[in-house]
Design goal:
Strand content: 25-35%
Number of strands: 12
Strand order of the largest sheet: 3-2-1-4-5-6
CATH superfamily of the largest domain: Ribonuclease H-like superfamily/Ribonuclease H
CATH architecture of the largest domain: 2-Layer Sandwich
CATH topology of the largest domain: Nucleotidyltransferase, domain 5
Structural class: alpha+beta
Length: 339
C-alpha cells in the first residue's frame, strides 16, 4: 500500500460566476505528488502540467496564485494521458494524502467527466493532513490552518515557492511526516470524500474512530423517506453496541442539522448529530450521522438548544397543531426510541 501525497491546481470559468460545464466546475491543470513510506519519507516524485480542454481562458485569480499562463499549459498532455501515467506511478492500492478536503472531489469529477475509472464509485477514503494537524497540534481545533502556517509551526525550511502543485505536495509531505512522528495514532482519523455518495445500502460507510462513530448513508429520494429509515435515527452506543436510552429525541436546527442526546448505562452520555447533504449523482439527499461521547457540560449545550427550539415553536405556532394537525415542535415525528 502506497501513500501518495497529492496536490492539484485547477482552473475555472474566467467569469468567476457560473461554471461553463456544471458537471465539472473545476478543470485540473497541474498535478504534483510524492510517493511516501509509512513514516512519511518521500520515495519518488510526480509532476505534470495538463492541457486544458474545457476552460481555455485562465481565471485571473488562478493565474495570480499559481503563476501559470495558458501558453505554458498548452505544452502539457491531455488529462487522460497524464492520469494513465499517474496511476501507473502510484502503484496498487494507493492511499491519498491531501492538505484539506478539496482535491479528491475535484479529481473524482474530472475522472468522471473524461470517462475514466473513478477512485471509487462511492465515498473515497483519504488522509487529510490539514485535519490531522489540527487534531495533533492544536488540541482538535476546528480551525483549519493554511499549509504555510503548518510549515512554520514545525520550522520546516521553505526552500521552494508555495502555490504550485508539486511544491504544495512537497510541503504537505513534510508536515504530514512531522505530524505522524508526533502523534502516530492520528492516522486512524481518516476522511471520506462524498462527491459521489453511497448509491445503495451496501456502499454505506460506518467507521468507528477512537472518539466517535461516523455513518454515511445511501442517497434517499427525499428527507421524508430518509427519516423512515430506522438505521438513520438509531442511537446504539458505539462503544459497546448496547441500546442507549434517549434523553432528548432528535430535533431540528434549521433544515439540515439535527441533534439528540442519549445515555448508555455503561459509557454515559452520547451526543448525536445528523447533517443532510444534497446529491446530484444520484439525485436526492444523503446524511452523515456522528455519535460522540460527551460530558455533562457538553450535554447541557444540547439541552439548551433543544429548549430554545421547543420554546420558539411553542411561542410562534400556538394553536397550529390543533388547527392544522401539523408537527411544529421541532422534534422529528418519525423519531421513536429505536435503540
Amino acid at each position: 500500500m502506497n501513500k501518495i501525497v497529492i496536490d492539484l491546481e485547477w482552473n475555472q470559468s474566467s467569469t468567476g460566476t457560473e461554471p461553463e460545464v456544471a458537471e465539472m466546475p473545476f478543470e485540473i491543470i497541474e498535478i504534483g505528488a510524492l510517493k511516501c513510506s509509512d513514516d512519511g519519507r518521500p520515495l519518488s516524485e510526480f509532476s505534470e502540467l495538463i492541457k486544458p480542454r474545457v476552460y481555455k481562458k485562465m481565471h485571473n485569480f488562478t493565474s495570480k496564485l499559481v503563476h501559470l499562463q495558458m501558453e505554458e499549459l498548452e505544452k502539457g498532455d491531455p488529462f487522460e494521458t497524464v492520469m494513465e501515467r499517474f496511476f501507473k506511478w502510484c502503484g496498487d492500492d494507493p492511499v491519498f494524502v491531501t492538505w484539506g478536503p478539496g482535491d479528491i472531489g475535484v479529481l473524482q469529477r474530472n475522472l468522471k467527466f473524461f470517462g475514466l475509472p473513478l477512485l471509487s464509485e462511492g465515498p473515497v477514503a483519504y488522509i487529510d493532513a490539514q485535519k490531522l494537524f489540527a487534531l495533533s497540534c492544536e488540541n482538535g481545533s476546528k480551525n483549519r490552518r493554511n499549509l504555510e502556517y503548518a510549515v512554520d509551526h514545525f520550522g520546516i525550511e521553505k526552500d521552494i515557492p508555495f502555490h504550485r502543485a508539486f511544491s504544495d505536495a512537497y510541503y504537505t509531505a513534510k508536515v504530514f511526516s512531522k505530524v505522524i512522528e508526533k502523534d502516530p495514532g492520528c492516522e486512524s482519523f481518516i476522511s471520506f470524500d462524498t462527491t459521489f455518495p453511497p448509491s445503495g445500502r451496501q456502499q454505506e460507510i460506518r467507521k468507528l474512530f477512537p472518539t466517535y462513530e461516523k455513518y454515511i448513508t445511501r442517497v434517499f429520494e427525499s428527507r421524508e423517506e430518509a427519516f423512515k429509515d430506522k438505521e438513520l435515527l438509531a442511537t446504539r452506543c458505539y462503544v459497546c453496541g448496547k441500546r442507549a436510552k434517549r434523553r432528548i429525541k432528535w430535533f431540528s436546527m434549521g433544515d439540515k442539522k439535527y441533534y439528540c442526546l442519549c445515555e448508555c448505562e455503561e459509557h454515559g452520555l452520547i451526543k448525536g448529530k445528523i447533517i443532510m447533504y444534497p446529491s446530484t449523482d444520484p439525485a436526492g439527499v444523503f446524511f452523515v450521522r456522528i455519535l460522540r461521547r460527551v460530558n455533562d457540560k457538553e450535554a447541557a449545550v444540547i439541552e439548551k438548544r433543544f429548549n430554545k427550539v421547543r420554546n420558539y415553536h411553542k411561542n410562534n405556532t400556538a394553536g397550529l397543531i390543533r388547527k392544522n394537525k401539523k408537527n411544529t415542535s421541532g422534534v422529528l415525528p418519525e423519531d421513536k426510541d429505536l435503540g
